[in-house]
Predict the structure.
Amino acid sequence: MAMKVPKDRTLDNTLILFKDGYEFIPKRVQNHHLDVYETRLLGQKVALLSGEKGAELFYDTKRMNRNGALPKRVLKTLFGENAIQTMDGEAHAHRKLLFMSLMTPEALENLRELTTTYWEQFAGKWQGMKKVVLYDETRELLCRTACDWAGVPLLEKEVPKRTEDLSKMIDGFSAVGPKHIESRRARKRSEKWIENLIIKVREGKLDLQEGTALYEMANHRDLKGKQLDARMAAIELLNVIRPLVAISKFLTFGAVALEDFPHTKPQVAGDDDYLFHFTQEVRRYYPFVPYLGACVNHDFTWQQYSFKKDQLVLIDVYGTNHDPRIWEDPDTFKPERFQDWEGGLFDLIPQGGGDYYKGHRCPGEWPTLEVLQASFQFMARHLQYKVPKQDYSYSLRKMPSLPKSGFIMKEVTMR
Ligand code: HEM
């Protein structure tokens, strides 16, 4: 018997989307035990997808495209205009290869080692500090790591400003008013900074190793054999550095996990498999990316729902990572669940799903795993600290979310 796909009866749910935050889509789709649901946002009919089947449809490039799916305010802050996130088809696949080419086993190993080296430096500094706010410190730690890894020269006096601008780009896209405007300015400053470096590389004024992101972006040629416009190359290089700094959010959540689930700490310190499972569980359990958008290529019907050409579709990232149809006790933090995990393309999707080369799945998933594992291992093995009274709870309504106190540590020592 044909069943009608349920929909919101209210005229517009844009405000409710912000009020419900990470729970907006799961509340609608999963509460009805479905994969698709219709709502209205900014006056338009929007299809909400959730779960493994929903993710599989979302990543079907024959049915969905990205051009036009991202609001201007996100492009002018977080991603940059006309970059890989907005591309489709052959042009996208070619650009994606550029990013994937940076992720060699040697480069990833190098990233892990760099991360540990910076942890050693920072932990040394923290020993003399009265109070350490982990989120603030790791943003700078990762800014240094990211620039080093990408071949981007960073003067000591530039570090605070660059760290601040990269963070503003990450946090300002969902903000309104002055915070959003500051985020746009931070993007402009950052693009200019990197564009100048791209020009220097092309003029032979910077000595660089092949394989670093700066070298590869500066020398990349598009499908027509043309070098990228210097600004475009800068935007794509920022698509490497900025998200590396954003890993500080997962890192801070991981510190909360080590505190809230203390039985995990000795295993994180001593067992490499467990360390990997813990890291995956941090990416699954804690809220980061709430949802992603795509547009429908042509009319089609799926699970009795009629998708219309150009309609906006959102995939529920947070909800799929907490879908009880995929994860047993999804709201329990349980690294062991990854012992038997078979690595599906559409179940664990904190950084998108599907195939890296064919679709938009995050090419930075491996770097993220390397940085997080190096960090959690260092924290559990070498860092001793007291956690004073503070509010490190986090909200599922504020996007992107973060432990409120930023995770404060005191009396930090290294062993
Ligand atoms: C795409 C999340 C780290 C580079 C994405 C997407 C998500 C995501 C959700 C979109 C997937 C889609 O549209 O289907 C994250 C998170 C990170 C992270 C939560 C960790 C904090 C990184 C890192 C890099 C990176 C470390 C680079 C070294 C990119 C790029 C894209 C992307 C270039 C666009 C891919 C495309 O459009 O084909 N990321 N990412 N990300 N990410 Fe990440």
Summary: The beta strands are 36-41, 44-49, 64-65, 132-133, 291-296, 300-302, 305-307, 312-316, 383-386, 408-414. The first strand starts at residue 36 and ends at 41.
